[in-house]
Amino acid sequence: MDGVVTNFTKGWMTFYNRQFGTNLTYADSVMWNDVIELTHFGDIDEFWDWASDLDGKSIFWHLEAYPGAIEALQALVDAGHQIIVLTTKPSFAIEDTLDWIERHDLPATEIHILEDKWSVECAIYLDDNPDLLPRLAEERPEATVCRYVRPWNAPIAGTVDVNDFVEFRDIVQRLAAR
User: Fold this and answer.
1) Average pLDDT over residues 111-116
2) Does position 84 have pLDDT exceeding 90, yes or no?
3) Where do the domains of the chain lie?
4) pTM for this prediction
């Protein structure tokens, strides 16, 4: 979800800028998990402690969907496809994530909160995590693994580059037509 359906980077930066008087922008984030390099936090645990309670909810409750993401997923459902959400979350974020999905009418047939996303069989995967994508391609060679192109990931053998949800929807529909 984060970095694919929701804009995690913009979300945490908005709160961080407001609380600490900085002017971070989405364009400042060019590496995976660069919150430590961009902030005053000493380690990732300190960041997660902060992100777990922002206005009474975790950061995951406050995130905005990327423009067109939910609409494209709904169009895929309307065309007969199933959406399975595979996401990794800290334990404090599970309830807020499920609430986000419900509040935003994300058309998910299944929701799995787990580390090993390849353990759930899907025909097509879409992710932005540069550490996970090669493993998805390796563990699920029968599937189409789509790399959601972001500044923090580079082309990966065995994956298909996707730049936005319109392109993703078109890939899914082309594959289904075969």
Assistant:
1) 96
2) yes
3) 8-62, 69-177
4) 0.93
